[in-house]
Automatic annotation (TrEMBL):
<keyword id="KW-0028">Amino-acid biosynthesis</keyword>
<keyword id="KW-0486">Methionine biosynthesis</keyword>
<dbReference type="InterPro" id="IPR002912">
    <property type="entry name" value="ACT_dom"/>
</dbReference>
<keyword id="KW-0560">Oxidoreductase</keyword>
<dbReference type="InterPro" id="IPR005106">
    <property type="entry name" value="Asp/hSer_DH_NAD-bd"/>
</dbReference>
<protein>
    <recommendedName>
        <fullName>Homoserine dehydrogenase</fullName>
        <ecNumber>1.1.1.3</ecNumber>
    </recommendedName>
</protein>
<dbReference type="InterPro" id="IPR019811">
    <property type="entry name" value="HDH_CS"/>
</dbReference>
<comment type="pathway">
    <text>Amino-acid biosynthesis; L-threonine biosynthesis; L-threonine from L-aspartate: step 3/5.</text>
</comment>
<dbReference type="InterPro" id="IPR001342">
    <property type="entry name" value="HDH_cat"/>
</dbReference>
<dbReference type="InterPro" id="IPR036291">
    <property type="entry name" value="NAD(P)-bd_dom_sf"/>
</dbReference>
<comment type="pathway">
    <text>Amino-acid biosynthesis; L-methionine biosynthesis via de novo pathway; L-homoserine from L-aspartate: step 3/3.</text>
</comment>
<dbReference type="InterPro" id="IPR016204">
    <property type="entry name" value="HDH"/>
</dbReference>
<feature type="domain" description="ACT">
    <location>
        <begin position="350"/>
        <end position="428"/>
    </location>
</feature>
<keyword id="KW-0791">Threonine biosynthesis</keyword>
<keyword id="KW-0521">NADP</keyword>
<comment type="similarity">
    <text>Belongs to the homoserine dehydrogenase family.</text>
</comment>
<dbReference type="InterPro" id="IPR045865">
    <property type="entry name" value="ACT-like_dom_sf"/>
</dbReference>
Length: 428
């Protein structure tokens, strides 16, 4: 039986999951590959921190990357550190030494994916990153393999478990955003500083990766228009339910004759749509191709074993390529495609506006919409007191720039106290 030695860069939750899952499923993996995989070294930052971790004695811990890069026995390096710049340097060094790399690092892939793929081919090694998007859900390989006979028109994803947990619990339990966020932090679903998740940046990196592969396009995280869930209130959740919608943080990539649009934002989505029923910390990706039609991928988007599952699948794929002598031979096609200005992206909108409870308010608001060419689909005056009223509107599909301009003009009306929220409506 052939033997392959690998090394891990990092041994946090995912790294430990890889160690445990490889041990748990060793027989199954060896049977399929006729190859025994052993973890020879793990790069860590602090030896004392890992002295009590339950790791096999055969694994050597090191704080020096040079111990791994200069070890000729190590054929595959698994990068699960999470940092971007240092991880990129390590990956490039591995390529130059003829070592294939498997990465779960969305930050690196979103920013440097295409240059790293090109570099891996130059050095005849593999670079695989299934775990960089949606944990254990197989979506990366389908994008460039299973669906590659299609022109992909649209990718819509619930790509962040923390935000989906928050919005699901606000909906199902009637809790406030602040209360659910605190609960998520207590349970370990959210970081002490949740900005990367709740502000949409995590999902933005993932949709950039999927768009790169699905659209064969040279896009990065910086091309994504991003809006988080911090302004979503229980009032918005309740109004959505009354109208037959669920509120989700969606990552959306669309390809049309005009170019590519990339965005992450909260959205109203019809309750009958499969994505509306993805609850808790689960992830899902909905893909539309001109041949396959609509397909959806669903599962656990994070966690030790789900992510380790994707990582080890990549390791097995690299070994298979080595056995078939096709390492580094996978070809990719990239196009420079124009990006659609986010202000030109059209969608219906839900609007919640707090106004004076006085005559002429509705006509003033309707007038501004008419001047911007925006049609009102429905208007309901909700909770009101003697002095203040809440107006909830649905407007027909309109360019984001026109909607924002109209709302900005409304803030200048003396009868408008504040624009409480403006949320896109996804009609699929």
């Amino acid at each position: 039986m052939k033997h392959v030695a690998i090394a891990l860069l990092g041994c946090g939750t995912v790294g430990k999951g890889i160690v445990d899952l490889l041990e748990k499923n060793a027989d199954l993996i060896e049977e399929q590959l006729d190859t025994k995989i052993t973890i020879k070294r793990i790069l860590i930052r602090n030896l004392a921190k890992y002295e009590r971790m339950d790791l096999p004695k055969s694994i050597a811990l090191t704080t020096e990357f040079s111990d791994i890069i200069n070890d000729d026995d190590i054929e595959i390096v698994v990068e699960v550190m999470g940092s971007a710049d240092f991880a990129k340097e390590c990956i490039e060094a591995c390529f130059k030494k003829g070592k294939s790399v498997v990465s779960a690092n969305k930050d690196v892939i979103a920013d440097y994916g295409i240059p790293l793929l090109k570099m891996s081919q130059e050095h005849n090694v593999d670079f695989q990153f299934e775990a960089s998007v949606a944990g254990g859900i197989p979506i990366i390989r389908p994008m460039y393999s299973s669906l590659n006979s299609n022109r992909i028109d649209r990718i819509i994803g619930i790509l962040n478990g923390t935000t989906n947990y928050i919005l699901s619990n606000m909906t199902e339990r009637g809790l406030s955003y602040e209360d659910v966020l605190q609960e998520a932090q207590d349970k370990g679903y959210a970081e002490a500083d949740p900005t990367n998740d709740v502000s949409g940046y995590d999902a933005a990196r993932k949709i950039a990766i999927l768009a790169t592969l699905g659209f064969h396009s040279a896009v990065t995280f910086r091309d994504v228009a991003v809006e988080g869930i911090e302004r979503i209130t229980q009032e918005d959740i309740s109004h959505a339910e009354e109208m037959g919608y669920a509120v989700k943080l969606l990552a959306i990539a669309t390809q049309s004759d005009d170019g590519i649009s990339l965005s992450v934002h909260p959205a109203f989505i019809p309750k009958q749509h499969p994505l509306a029923n993805v609850s808790g910390a689960y992830n899902a990706i909905y893909v539309r191709g001109n041949g396959v039609g609509d397909v959806m991928f669903y599962g656990q988007g994070a966690g030790a074993f789900p992510t380790a599952s994707a990582v080890l699948s990549d390791v097995m794929n690299v070994i298979l390529h080595t056995n078939l002598t096709i390492t580094g031979k996978r070809g990719y096609v990239w196009h420079q495609v124009p990006l659609v200005d986010p202000s030109h992206i059209e969608a219906p909108y839900y609007l919640r506006i707090i106004v004076d409870n006085a005559p002429g308010v509705l006509s003033s608001i309707a007038g501004i919409f008419a001047e911007n060419g925006i049609s009102i689909r429905s208007l309901i005056q909700k909770d009101e007191t003697k002095e203040v009223a809440e107006i909830v509107l649905l407007i027909d599909s309109s360019a984001d720039g026109l909607v924002r301009d109209a709302l900005q003009r409304m803030t200048g009306l003396s009868c408008v106290r504040r624009i409480a929220n403006a949320i896109r409506v996804i009609e699929i």
